[in-house]
Amino acid sequence: MTNSALGPALHPAPAAGAGAVERRLRARRDTGRGLLMPYVTGGITPGWTDYLRAFAAAGADAIEVGLPFSDPTLDGVTIQQAGDTALARGASTRRILADLSGMPALGVPLVASTYYNLVLHEGPEAFCAALRRAGVGGLIVPDLPVHEADELEGAAAAAGIELSLLASPATPQPRLAEISRRSRGFVYAVSLMGTTGERTALAASAAELTERIRRVTDRPVLLGFGISTPDQAREARRHADGVVVGAAVMRRVLDGAGPDDLRAFLTTLRQALDQECDRPR
Amino acid sequence: MRQVTATEGTILTAADLAGNGVHGDDPDVHGKFGIFGGRYVPEALIPALDQVAAEYERARNDVAFLREFDHLLRTYAGRPTTLTEVPRFSEQAGGARIILKREDLTHTGAHKINNVLGQALLTKRLGKRRVIAETGAGQHGVATATAAALMGLECVIYMGAVDCERQALNVARMKLLGATVVPVHNGSKTLKDAINEAFRDWVTNVDTTHYLFGTIAGPHPFPEIVRDFARIIGVEARRQMLELTGKLPDAVCAAVGGGSNAIGIFHAFLEDEGVALHGYEAGGRGLETGEHALTLTEGSIGVLHGSRTYVLQDEEGQTIESHSISAGLDYPGVGPEHAWLKDTGRAAYHGITDAEAMEAFALLARTEGIIPAIESSHALAGALKLGRELGPEATILVNLSGRGDKDMGTAMKYFNL
Known about the structure:
Helix content of chain A is about 45%, strand content about 10%.
């Protein structure tokens, strides 16, 4: 039964049946590329979808689109402010998805992220179907731990939406195995105990967590929370398959940076990730 | 069933704390009351919630813990609290016999002390040295700061900036008790935003910190723990009613914000089918104005602060800012057990406007010499209505959950005093 071509024998055969987001991330990872998933709060500015094009041009491998919620308990000040700003502009799930539907194809998978109340409000089936119609392939719900995920997991699978689960440094190993097994697209490794937001250094807990996830899956592992600079991205790349960059992007957007500025910033991260191809696996 | 023997001479037994399970009143293993409750929180908090749940399970089966909690309730909080019959007030209630459970007479002036002492003991068992809490009216913050001072714990209280202003006296009390009060300027700057900020603190400092949750909302096991520590209100009141009147009341009335004082008095009566349970939410300026906190009566099912329950939300699923003249009821969510009691029909929930509450507030002061909290005044106003419906034969027990000293600023403005 062993087939070393499928990866370490420890892991069950993976990619068969994987969705489009996961297939894309695996394919790119397997070429040795460090994965980059920048985040933008949907509806943050009138022409906010221009940021998506800039992210794609900078070499994003996937793009996370936040659907703002009034009570973002896991977000630090930057993403909170971005959400409040978007909501004050009249942003809503429906309008953000309509904006995405109206865009020409980006060629980069889109992953929505939001809090569970917005999913439940529409109903998990209708919500996932709406994501699908808007061309979104994945979903992250940071206040939905694995044991509450059953109803959304089924609805997402039925609609062809890959529901990525989050793992934290405090998660015990058996639970980490369940999260990794049930996660689709990738496993979102939360680098630290805390909220989203820029930090001066990559948390020490990041390396240990990604190492523990790797022991139980070969699904792509993206490290998020507090990754703000090229140096931190390079450091993160030594442990994970790639990085999620949210607050560092949104602080610039809130300060008035346009799509071109963000493209320049993300290009520096892209280059940092590309430099670090020969890391140990 | 639990096999802990009641300790001789105490007012509290394991059964008092834990209920009896007959009414399905312990949530299931996932913390669900029917479809309500659960744990909709970041993954990082799950191990901490597991730890709290496991330690609580040990504590409530530990006679030493029960004895210590009981001792604090009697010698520090001032339990048991008395019942007071209020005949002059009752004249305005169609002559129905109204009897108050006097939680306003506890140390710190509100029922919140019961839960806080229990959880502060639990904090020590958890080996944590720091507590954080949210507060709306400031009563839970004051109670938490009090217990933290008593037990030598570091204490940080999150409070909406708007609430800090309208409850300035309680801010000063918390500071005097050694707590750090952090005004929260996000969102509506009230209780819900204070809870958001407390969750952010907890996820960052969970190794050292216990989140001393103040109401029966939030993720499992908080709705169960807070209920169990508040349950003494109804346990006492049920015994006292039998002693005083020889029978159970026809109805029990309580104000509902998050719902802890209401569940505290309701719970011991859940199996008494002849006892109607009535919860009164803040109707604010009136349903038609949209400025209210009618979560159970007008809200819809959603997820807020870690729990699936009724919430006030707009057509997009964004939380709506609630309104009430009483900061303690100004909350767009509610404990999942109330959502479940509503849907099963065991309890009924109604709205009381600011004006109705303030009328009852003044009436109790003038007729009985008791100044109630504005929160509790919603239950009093409900009892006045209910008494007129039920007639002079009816006996109504009201949870006077707190005293009104903290509300004098609001009363001065409202009545031009």
